[in-house]
Amino acid sequence: xQKQLSRPKExxxxxxxxxxxxxxxxxxxxxxxxxxPVSDAYAALPVNARNPLMRYxxxxxxxxxxxxxxxxxxxxxxxxDGYYSDYDYVQTTKPxxxxxxxxxxxAEQIPxxxxxxxxxxxxxxxxxxxxxxxxxxxxxxxxxxxxxxxRQAYQSDSMVFTIISNDFDQSLMKYGGExxxxxxxxxxxxxxxxxxxxxxxxxxxxxxxxxxxxSALLRYLYANAGLNPKQVQAWFSAAEATAPxxxxxxxxxxxxxxxxxxxxxxxxxxxxxxxxxxGLTPDKILFVVDGIREVRTExxxxxxxxxxxxxxRNYFMQAARQRGYELVDLHPVxxxxxxAGQTVxxxxxxxxxxxxxxxxxxxxxxxxxxxxQTFNR
Length: 377
Hints:
- There is one protein chain.
- This protein is 44% helix and 14% strand.
- By secondary structure, it is an alpha/beta fold.
- The protein folds into two domains: 1-35; 60-375, Rossmann fold (3-Layer(aba) Sandwich), CATH 3.40.50.
- Helix 1 crosses helix 7 and helix 4 packs parallel to helix 9.
- The longest helix has 32 residues, at 2-33.
- The N and C termini lie far apart (96 Å).
- The model has no long low-confidence stretch (mean pLDDT 90).
């Protein structure tokens, strides 16, 4: 009788011991992770009516790394305006070129000093300013908001827009509204389309994002190890595929005619709003269009040309030239470097430009009329 009464207590003690052991293990792992370069991808400030522009807390430091083994680890510094830069943005009479983009300008994977904007700034010997405005995920529609900020806050004399493969469809609330919170997108494809934004709660939000802010272990599991719904779904999709998916511009090549038409309409809306948001004439604006860096053979190029990014690249470049804007096509720039045995990105680990890629882009910008007129070079 006495033994039967002690069994529940015995099991209770066992459960408590197991739970206590798990707490010790998780606490130990948490401590270890705090000394490792765990990615912190959830540090942006809230975006709402009171704070309408996505950025990081001013004068803050952020850690980036990729994958379970902390590849491409970088410590990134955000300046007084909340954008990754080793120097503050100030109002002076020196000529200013604003470089606007998404994660390619944010450039988490490389040191701040190696970015396009920092390289251009370093080459000016303090006679002018080059400020970068970029946040991961930003599409064409968000570029308009960055441009307006650069004009109003710093009176920019010229602007450079970097154009990437996912800039087009995600400019529409129809495609980007589900996951681009805090970004401005076009409400629809009509001529009266408005720039609208879904509030972003930032890293202070409750739930999983709030936990991710405070726990290095959870951030590692979610961001580095990929134990999140989006990545898990991608794993299952890859396992079911009969062949590795082809990517051009870092995205799958397939598209529907509806998506293509919507994307082209997003381009037209972008150009429609561009003069008002920038306050600049076409001769003071430069577009830098990413190349299809996965292409290595002529057969691949023919396939890439008919992919979603290939079609949209050509559509955007034609639209820009017809309106009198200067444009740099990075495809031949990168292709020449790759044929010489150089590596311009982190493919297949990551589709962003590496330090050499940023250097080549900066060199290409220096050769343009917009750059030379801005700084009298």
